Amino acid sequence: MPRVALYARVSTSEQRVEPQLHALHSYAGARGLDVAGEYLDEDISGDKDRRPALDRLLSDARRRAFDVVACVKLDRLARSVHHLTSLALEFQALGIDLVVLDQTVGREERESLLGKSPPTSPWEGRPHAEAARRPPYIRNAGSRSREERPVGC
Question: By the 8 A CB rule, do 16 and 80 touch?
Answer without folding.
Answer: no
